[in-house]
Amino acid sequence: MITTSSDAERRRRATASLARLRPALAVDAARHLGHSDAVAFLARLDSWFSDVHGPIEALYGDAAPADGLVVELVRLALCAAVERPVELRDTDRRREIDPSWYQHQRMIGYVAYTDRFAGTLDGLHARLDHLAELGVTYLHLMPLLAPREGANDGGYAVADYRAVDPRVGTMADLERLAGELRGRGMSLCVDLVLNHTAREHPWARGWLAGDPDYAEFYLSFPDRTMPDAYEATVNDVFPDQAPGSFTWVPAKQAWVWTSFFPYQWDLNYANPRVLAAMLETILWLANRGIEIFRMDAVPFMGKRLGTSCMNQPEVHDIMQALHALVKLAAPATVFKAEAIVAPDDLVAYLGGHERYRPECELAYHNQLMVMLWSGLATKDARLAVQSLRRLRPIPAATSWATYVRCHDDIGWAVGDRDARAVGYDPVAHRDFLNAFFSGRFPMSYARGALFGENAETGDARISGSAAALCGISEARGRDDPRALELAIRRLVLLHAVTFAWGGVPLLYMGDELAQGNDTAYLRDPALAPDNRWMHRPYFDDDAAGRRHDPATVEGRVFGWIHALATTRATQPALHAAGESAILEVDSPAVLAWRRRHPRSGNFVGMVNMAEHAVSIGAHALDGLGELETVLASDGPMLLQDGRLVLPGLGFVWLAEP
Length: 657
Ligand code: OTU
Known about the structure:
Structural class: alpha/beta
Largest sheet: 8 strands, parallel, barrel
Oligomer: single chain
Mean pLDDT: 96
Number of helices: 22
Helix content: 25-40%
Distance between the termini: 38 Å
Bound molecules: 3-O-alpha-D-glucopyranosyl-D-fructose
């Protein structure tokens, strides 16, 4: 790496700034924190300071020297450190001793809506055994901070970050649950919507009322000149439900920036007051016991004319500064980036920049997710191999969150270059995936639906539960045992990849029971226009009751997910610090990857996307040691004439004993 003189100057300015600010901070830390906590706080300050100073200077340095703002933000962190409950300081201590805790192979995430999984936060206590049975160590509860009344985009329109949605409980309930989870070795993950607030949020009300404390908290324009200029290059997120990225607000006589729904107002991070307010919010929530923040819609936080207004450099400066500041006060905290963006833009959220600076520890591996579905539809792994091989490596202290399904639609983030490299026309391939997974393609087994159809561009995305997209619902409907067998194998195959890719696998509630689409949302007028609700079902207790019965679909799927989860935890090579490397194999249907652990050796995962058996030359595994089958869809791997046989839609996990 070439260090430019400006880099050196930046570092020098940060060092000088720390030297100026440190003595006063040291006095206050010593006064308000106990001796050893003060020592720890200052040690963190020394190691994180340049990661605060650099981004703040880049973001706001033009307006004023960074010192003033930096010291104000560091003091917010110091206050939060002082207020941090003692049990959480203990967690901090443990995490600092074992800083790669979130990368351990025992990490398994579970993602659920509180109400749909357990009714309320209190009700969740009774579900913890279900989670423990699956080895879950990380529970992501979908948006639960108090949303606006009425339509709220599934909770992503927050009216109060410091209160819990009264329908599921109170902040005290959340703290109690976080405590119980900690006691059981599970970390609580909660959504934090960074890009926007509900228009009913006090910040928005203050801004509307002209309160100087909230001046320039949001972005508004008196006429269409700027909105039109921006919209020339900005994509519509919800083209059918909420076209455009601006909303006319009569009370302000202005167009307000609304990337998502009209009631979700984008925050203006060009204003340092917004950053400070968000920092205080995160610190406060971290002190309630939230360990992992799912940072929602971060790509949209920086706006630049003439761009897509996604993934702009400011976004990374904001995340880096917030991350370093939160580490000062609550080092047990981890950030997960929700950046569902093109593969070339993705790695940056894990700090993979030219000049390395920590950012989020976790990011959704949406490229892997998209490639798996594309592979099943085409019965071919070449596109996955091509695109995953090209993905830039991620910094060693970060990990992917791997997943099969989530609460959102699937957008076909298939790179044009990757598609062409394997002979696909990119537009035609994306159209095919939509046709296939919406069940419109002839003979398709998938039972999803198109989401966000854009009449202008022809783009669309896909809704539908994993079981519905794999063909389980269709096969059940026809009572076709062979089709059902294949469909179950697909669902298992997908999880066999996400549980062994390396990173933190996130199991989406209901998928362990092969829950199908839920059409109940159509009866609720507030939800009906948004078909993402079809794959946000209520937990099916009857199905869960059958989870140990191998004669049932639930029993078979649950049995496999359980086996994947328990086996995963025994494989040191699945610790996320290492990279997954794609293995060169001579069958187009096979995705094969290798992981290496310095002590335990190699691990190889393989899946066959085709419905018939294929074989690969055994030389693909040359030099990887004596591999043994640790888990496979169809028993130990067979070797025939120097070729390894993979049954149709089969998977195999191999490892050095
Ligand atoms: C997220 O998704 C949430 O996951 C959605 O459920 C919300 O509706 C939305 O934010 C607004 O809060 O565009 O189609 O690159 O993909 O932020 C879903 C990030 C989305 C975007 C993502 C967004």
